[in-house]
Amino acid sequence: MNELLFVRGHNPRLPAGAADLDRLVAVAARMLRQSITVRGNGQVTTGDRRWGHQHWVYGRTGEPCRRCGAPIRHTGAEPGDPWRRATWWCPQCQPEPS
Questions:
Q1: Percent of the chain's residues with pLDDT above 70
Q2: Which of 11-20, 37-46, 55-64, 74-83 has the lowest mean pLDDT?
Q3: Which residue of 28, 46, 51, 88 is most buried, as measured by CB atoms within 10 A?
Q4: Cα atoms in the 13 Å half-sphere on the side-chain side of 78
Q5: Cα distance between residue 12 and residue 27, in whole Å
Q6: What DSSP designation does 29 have?
Q7: Whole-angstrom Cα distance, residue 26 to residue 36?
């Protein structure tokens, strides 16, 4: 989800109803197809399979964004999240919703 939101330029705090869900699903499906059909791609979302280059934002706290250079931000699990998911995003490429 972190990578999908980055690719679409959506801030993780964007209400789901404000996003083009059909487009998100289409992009997610394309990303998943790429992961399972391209040998060795696994969870590579950037297209670069080199170690440490596979993700746009996931697991890259404080590192420069691959697009704009801003430091990647991270937050731990939101209260009440039963899956205890962490979130990574670029504050420049994924601006706060207005």
A1: 92
A2: 37-46
A3: 88
A4: 6
A5: 16
A6: H
A7: 16
